[in-house]
């Protein structure tokens, strides 16, 4: 670990618990202190850059320090930083809502705001329950959850999510749900890029998001044992080669900011592919 980064790594570990992280991993896999961001790049305290291929878990669609957003923020802050929406309104919320309405199906609908995805899920559950309550059906309290779905981390979102890894610990706190099968993408036509590799069972793509599913063999689709942590090897390969990839288990995915260039996409996929080859070689 380079000296300029070391100090931050040590200070961090003595005061911060990181989300979705097994903290004991950080005894041998240091956190990466980031000093600044720029477009698709993240840069540490000694100037090492990482191409951000995972969009810090979906929060930075337009790249780091996007000039358009950064110019708009101080303008808004200089005018009105916040006012409660109960009983008040303001220009920004009206304009945003009008724009969102243009994107949603026709018919009577309204915008209701939450400050993160998990809260939005909880609000949707409450609204749905409340609707039936007003229809004289208070017994309608159960929700259908799709297998393998993920909706966030608060208790409501965990309850309607379906990933045992995240929810089993909190089972006693979660409401009961009805489980339904979700569409199985495994049986779609294979993707193009690295589908020929024996350990690549599936390649899925929607818009700018691509996921590559690693398995023991593409024909049997038997999962790679979780404890081998092959995805983590892809992550480590990415770090060594200046790309931030963060596989979910053995699913390697790419969700780069929209500002990425074609050449940067080439770099990202090359590093990702080399990482997959390293991760499955033994
Ligand atoms: C499909 C889906 N729903 C909800 C959430 C929760 O969003 P947030 O992290 O803003 O609470 C996520 C987060 O990754 C998500 O992927």
Q: Secondary-structure blueprint of this entry?
A:
Blueprint: H1 3-15, E1 34-38, E2 41-44, E3 49-52, H2 55-58, H3 67-79, H4 91-103, H5 117-134, E4 143-146, H6 155-160, H7 164-167, E5 177-180, E6 200-206, E7 209-214, H8 230-240, E8 243-244, E9 251-254, H9 262-279
Parallel strand pairs: 3-8, 4-5
Antiparallel strand pairs: 1-2, 2-3, 6-7, 7-9
The structure holds pyridoxal-5'-phosphate.
The site of pyridoxal-5'-phosphate (PLP) has 8 residues, from helix 5.
CATH topology descriptor of the largest domain: Aspartate Aminotransferase, domain 1
Give the total of domains.
Answer: 2
The CATH superfamily of the largest domain is Aspartate Aminotransferase, domain 1
* Estimated radius of gyration: 22 Å
Residue-averaged pLDDT: 91
Strand order of the largest sheet: 1-2-3-8
CATH architecture of the largest domain: Alpha-Beta Complex
Q: How would a crystallographer describe the biggest sheet?
A: 4 strands, mixed
Dominant shape: globular
Give the ordered list of helices and strands: HEEEHHHHEHHEEEHEEH
Estimated helix fraction: 25-40%
Strand content: 5-15%
Secondary-structure class:
alpha/beta
Summarize it.
Helix content is 35%, strand content 14%.
Notes on the structure:
Helix content is 35%, strand content 14%. The chain has a four-stranded mixed beta sheet. Strands 6-7-9 form a three-stranded antiparallel beta sheet, covered by helices on one side. Strands 4-5 form a two-stranded parallel sheet. Helix 8 crosses helix 9. It contains nine helices and nine strands. The protein folds into two domains: 32-81 and 190-282, Alpha-Beta Complex (Aspartate Aminotransferase, domain 1); 114-180, no CATH class. The mean pLDDT is 91. The protein has 282 residues and is an alpha/beta fold. Pyridoxal-5'-phosphate (PLP) is lined by residues 58, 116-118, 121, 150-152.
């Amino acid at each position: 670990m380079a000296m300029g980064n070391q100090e931050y790594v040590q200070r961090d570990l003595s005061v911060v618990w990181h989300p979705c992280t097994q903290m004991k991993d950080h005894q041998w896999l240091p956190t990466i202190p980031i000093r600044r961001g720029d477009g698709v790049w993240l840069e540490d305290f000694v100037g090492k850059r990482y191409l951000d291929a995972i969009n810090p878990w979906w929060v930075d669609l337009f790249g780091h320090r996007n000039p358009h957003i950064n110019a708009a923020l101080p303008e808004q802050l200089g005018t009105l930083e916040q006012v409660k929406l109960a009983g008040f309104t303001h220009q920004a919320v009206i304009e945003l809502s009008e724009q969102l309405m243009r994107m949603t199906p026709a018919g009577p609908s309204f915008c209701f705001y939450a400050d993160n995805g998990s809260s939005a899920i909880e609000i949707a559950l409450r609204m749905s329950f409340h609707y039936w309550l007003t229809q004289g059906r208070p017994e309608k309290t159960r929700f259908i959850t799709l297998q393998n779905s993920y909706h966030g981390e608060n208790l409501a979102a965990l309850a309607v999510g379906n990933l045992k890894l995240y929810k089993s610990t909190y089972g006693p706190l979660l409401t009961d749900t009805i489980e339904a099968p979700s569409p199985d993408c495994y049986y779609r036509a294979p993707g193009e890029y690295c589908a020929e590799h024996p350990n690549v069972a599936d390649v899925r793509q929607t818009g700018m998001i691509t996921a590559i599913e690693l398995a023991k063999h593409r024909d049997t689709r038997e999962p790679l044992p979780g404890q081998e942590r092959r995805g983590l090897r892809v992550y480590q390969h990415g770090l060594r080669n200046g790309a931030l990839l963060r596989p979910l288990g053995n699913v390697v995915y790419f969700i780069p900011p929209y500002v990425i260039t074609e050449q940067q996409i080439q770099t990202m996929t090359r590093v990702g592919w080399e990482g997959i080859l390293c991760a499955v070689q033994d």
